[in-house]
Amino acid sequence: MKQFFLAICAVLLGGLVLMAVAAPGDTAGLPGSINDYKVLAPISHGNLTIFPVISTKVHDTSDFITLDEGIRSGEVVVTEVGNLHSVMRRRPPYVPVRPPGAEVNRLVLVNNSKHPLLLLAGEVVTGGKQDRVVGKDRIIPGESDPVDVSVFCVEHGRWTNTSEKFDTHASIMLQPSVRMKAMADQDQQKVWDEVGKSKAQMSAKVAAAAPTVSSGSGVGGGGGAGSGSGGGVGSDAYAMRLRELDSTSSYAKARENEAMQKQVESITEPMQKAYESVIKQLRNQNAVGVVVAVKGRIVWADMFASSSLLAKYWPKLLDSYASEALTAQGAQREISVKEAQNFLENWQARHEVVDSEPGLYRQRELIGDKFRAFQLTSLLAKEIFDVHLSKMAD
């Protein structure tokens, strides 16, 4: 235990990456609120089941801004490597050095706000030469110098500039199966493969829900949740949307496709209403996250330091979970609250990787039997606590 503690200290002091073998059952350094997580009764619709999670421990996260907030205000700018001259607000003594041209797996971010910026792995930025996805959770300080951000391409094929700056107007988070490839595998080809697989499944789902009556009738077909999902348009217009979905190389454009969005909304709208009803009943308790199951199999969990932080990310997270449910394969099964609670309580890791920037943040990747977890801890003064925890079934 002493050696383990010294190793962690070395990481904090040096900002290095550490790989260590954790002793079976060793719980040192685990999320401080782990014993306070309580899984509630599930909310289900179609293939998607969400277990709200409450905690007795919360923190003040009001100082943090999200990527969506920063880009919307114009105070956070994301651009290709080499475009710094167009995004910097000069702050001495930083002297920009013009780097080489754009790179697939690197972007540059400048946080011109006075607040620390929270980046979550799986957030999609669109524009530049290719749409990208953030590769890992991290914190960017306020009024930062340009920061290299590790990313993965989610638009295989395009390498032409559409804009100098990236945007998050679509507010898209990768669905769990694709998000996992970026976070856990850190492999561009695997990300591309999973994006391609997901897009093909989206197209199949949309095609199965196509209107079955004559053009312009405004009546949908396909049965079940897909009925009427043409959104009140004729078969010709729906066919055009399907062609657009088949032809795009962009995960973001596929998710924004109107026909696909109707499918997602068929799940998210009733789920959101049920979730809001549950949250209203929990006014004196703190909803900080969810455990997610698809077709009765747990796939993911997202936990935050506060209810307000969860609320900021909730719309894009729910969309991502619904996308996973729409494209999932396999038979349906029943799942219990006990299974979800057990998933949150299992933290016996065989290995871990620690990535740290002293005084800013620490991220720990925990690798255990049938799971991987990522714990982002703020090391900012007066804000030393776990900000985000994501856990995936492996």
Structural class: alpha+beta
In percent, how much strand structure appears in the residues? 25-35%
* Major sheet attributes: 10 strands, antiparallel
Number of helices: 9
Envelope shape:
globular
The domain tally reads 3
Question: Roughly what percent helix?
Answer: 25-40%
- End-to-end Cα distance: 27 Å
Question: What quaternary form is this?
Answer: single chain
Question: Which series of helices and strands comes N to C?
Answer: HEEEEEHEEEEEEEHHHHHEEHHEEEE
Calculate the mean pLDDT score and round it: 83
Number of strands: 18
Instruction: Return Rg in Å.
Output: 21 Å
Low-confidence stretches: 1-27, 92-99, 213-231
Descriptive account of the structure:
Strand 16 (361-368) and strand 17 form a beta hairpin. Mean pLDDT is 83; it is low at 1-27, 92-99 and 213-231. The chain is built from 9 helices and 18 strands. The strands form 3 sheets. Strands 1, 2, 3, 4, 13, 14, 15, 16, 17 and 18 form a 10-stranded antiparallel beta sheet that branches. It has a 5-stranded antiparallel beta sheet with strand order 6-7-12-10-9. By secondary structure, it is an alpha+beta fold. It has 3 domains: 2-61 and 267-393, no CATH class; 65-176, no CATH class; 192-264, no CATH class. Helix 4 (188-208) runs antiparallel to helix 5 (235-247) and helix 7 crosses helix 8 (307-327). The chain starts with a helix and ends with a strand.
